[in-house]
Amino acid sequence: MRNKSLIITLTVIVSALCLYFLSFSFVAHNVQKDAEAFATDAQGNIDLVKKQDYLDSIWKEPVFLGYTYQEIKENELGLGLDLKGGMHVVLEVSPVEIIKSMSGNSKDPNFLKALARAQELQKNSQERFTTLFAQAYREVEPDGRLSRIFSNSANRGKISYESSNKEVIDIIDKEVEDAIGRSFNILRTRIDKFGVNQPNIQRLKGSGRIQIELPGIDNPERVRKLLQGMANLEFWEVWSPQEFSPYFMQLNEYLTQQEKAGNLNLRETETKNPLKAAAAKGDVLAQAAASDSNAVAASDTTAKDTAAAALAAADSLANQAGPLARLFTQLPNGIGANVRDTAKINDIFARPDVRAIFPPNMKFLWDVKPIAGDNRQEFVELYAVKKGRDGKAPLSGDAINDARQDFDQQGRPEINMTMNPTGAKKWARLTGNNVGRQIAIVLDNYVYSAPVVQGEITGGSSSISGNFTIEEAQDLANILKAGKMPAPTRIVEEAIVGPSLGQEAINQGLLSTLAGLVIVVVFMIAYYSRGGFIADLALVFNIFFILGILAQFNAALTLPGIAGIVLTLGMAVDANVLIFERMREEARKGLSMREVINKGYDKAFITILDANVTTFLAGFILYFFGSGPVKGFAITLMLGIVTSFFTSVYISRLLIERSFLKTGKLSFSNAFAERMFQNVKFDVMKWKKPAYAFSLSLIIFGFVAMAIKGPNLGVDFQGGRSYVVEFDKAIPASDVRAALTDDFHEEGTEVKTFGASNRVKVITSWLADDESLQADEQVKAALDAGLAEFSDLNPEVLSSSKVGATVADDIQNTAVIALLLSLVGIFIYVMFRFNKWQFSLGGVVALLHDALMIIAIFAILDLFGISYEMDQIFIAAILTIIGFSINDTVVIFDRVREYMNDNPKAHVREIINPALIDTFSRTIITSVTVFMVVLVLFIFGGEILRGFSLAMLIGVVFGVYSTLFIASPIVVDTMKDEKKPAPAPQPTAKKVS
């Protein structure tokens, strides 16, 4: 074996890295156990608040190799929402509101007709909304000019009356894209402040959508309102520290009295103040000052005077003894607190007796960005702002026309801001009344900047300067623009998984994985003796690598991901089977064991490579076009293909060669295995016509059945809402449906048993086109009203999901595109590898046959009352079968190519049967192994994966069938008889010594 030292080195490095990154998961688990032990009382009850307090106390403390618990949690192998419970949301930024705002809320009838028409077109189109709007406007008013509507004061400098329609649409496109970016940043900040462990937020490429995953959420209503709320930008006058510090001293005295009386306990909040030590050294002062000395045309002297006054007032407070000295700390521009104490401070300030100490027009807000101190502590500044008589800010975000990042005369980043006429007047009055004082720029009740005003600003144009980086200036400009243009977000897809359902999924996933592993291990040892044992060791490496690499990339393990691992166990056998079957063939020729090992691996290498590339291609397309759980499955599948190739081809060879050198012998067969496929004989060409007729008949019957009853599409393909409901006792699904039909206005309601006799899945298309929060609440209220009939059975909603009609159309379209692209990609690859289009055609027709067969059989089963949904997971199964089936086909084609090279005068007609017979043992062994593993997944994997598993079972059976009786005959039928028949190679059988 060449490059043996490189393989050993690489194995050691990858193993060490996997062990290192998986260790974070073990440490995190142990910390959780310590927290539970700390919070458990004598009776064994766990105080969840006490447990969380323990975890909060070590959040910034080193717990492993110098890493804090926060860093450990960030690097552990996370669990997906389907295993952990939580909420998955996809939001869409509404371009309609942006376009209306840019038009100045125009009432032009043609403009409004075009908007309405574009919304109709969007339901069945993948085009950008702005493109559809332009198309609709041309339909409504062919010679109309959009500049007539959009050349207003809000778009001054961007759109003029002479602008062409294309230029106007380009500007609208940019504004929509900017709005999506602003919404993403705003939502990210809101989620960070929401207090969710390991939230995930990302933009979905190619769409105006944002995907958010929130583990452990137990209040979905609050999340919906938080995510869909409009950005609230305000400008507030700020109380100086000298002005509000006397009130803090009164508060300190009052809290001291309360503490002495036993009505207040803040001792547990007392911590070291590493920021004071840092401030003395000056290293944090500069960082903190940079965030709050930003000035609207401010001089450095003004900023320094303000900071000095703030420090003096804060120092006065810090020197006071009492509760506040333990809660607050001195910051360069005022006072602040440790981030972990802010919730306690908020609770204190919310008390009526505490509010009575402060003036009624004083309101407290936190800075959005924490300041880093020593010992990895973080501190955040507190601002006191002045409320108006009506409790509102003197100026709001709707006054802003535009804001952009620019540079001042010294080349330093700054923000240029322009306001509309009404806003300019208010801004002049506000700045004129606050010369030398701060004005807080507040978004969603968090202070993003508090610049100091140098003088009254008239004309509506201002510049905000300070110690900005370019990125900070761009972010602040985006924040200011967030208040200018209403860009509401709406939830177009949602899934909620309860913790009990998540724990059940974990148990099912572990059970199916272990059962699949046992089947593979036992089979390999039973069939291949010591060689099988070595293959099992390589399989253990394979699973270890998959989990370790997932942890390295901070990926989350999902239930479909576990399915991918289970499937990888079955498919990893294929490479070992190919190698061992090749070695057995070489051993029959009487070669020495050294030559058998070398030739077995060398001859199997290219076949394994081709087979893995085609399967990987299907996985890549699945990842590129999939979303949510499908993407998680695709990642695991692709990773499993790579790791199984490495472990089967290289690590197993190292182990086999070492075993042979140590013992001088190697067994990879037994008498039973030798006899099993000894006298296999068949003629595929003889059965091609019956096979064609059988396949065509079954597919036609399936699609007729689908036409009669309609396709059983899941929510993600047809849109709507679904709920998993559990009762105390078994209940007929028909009774639940009868109770819910009236409440759902007799619109597309389906109820079926889900996994257990006391659990049902409710699917309704009522209000599917309405994606508003009100519609969600209306449907949920209707569900509760219908379930009230079974109140004695204590119905509980374990999970829910929603997919908007537009998203459902997108998912359907991307599913079709993924299937077509996978077929095209495989066609090109096979033609490239085998240099004949006939091989590509045979392979792709067989794959299309497999896909249609799965769909047809699902429809036939549905006709007979065995119902499984066709959803994204179903498409994942079809694409996986495409990868698996072409794997088998490529192995046979590779043997055909080998025989054609050895017998250049022979025609493929004489070669095809010997090639099929020689590879038949590998085909059956691999297929049976995968079938058994997927059968375990079908039995133990849970209801969520049952449809996936069934599709895989059907696909495995018909994948073998299509390879033998569809792909191979098509190659023979389409290949011209260019060569004279010659004696074909005959399979040989010799006993292995």
How many helices? The count is 34
Strand order of the largest sheet: 5-6-4-21-26-23-25-24
Distance between the termini: 24 Å
Strand content: 5-15%
Overall, the morphology is: globular
Q: Give the tally of β-strands.
A: 26
Structural class: alpha+beta
- Which ranges are low-confidence, i.e. pLDDT below 50, for 5 or more consecutive residues? 268-295, 297-304, 978-982, 988-993
Rg calculated over all Cα atoms? 34 Å
- Percent range of helical residues: 55-70%
Q: Give a short account of the largest sheet.
A: 8 strands, antiparallel
Mean pLDDT: 79
Model description:
There is one protein chain. With 993 residues, the protein is α+β, with helices and mostly antiparallel strands. 60% of the residues lie in helices and 14% in strands. It is built from 34 helices and 26 strands. The strands form 5 sheets. Strands 5-6-4-21-26-23-25-24 form an 8-stranded antiparallel β-sheet. A 5-stranded mixed barrel has the order 7-13-11-18-17. The longest helix is centred in the middle third of the chain and has 54 residues, at 499-552. Mean pLDDT is 79; it is low at 268-295, 297-304, 978-982 and 988-993.
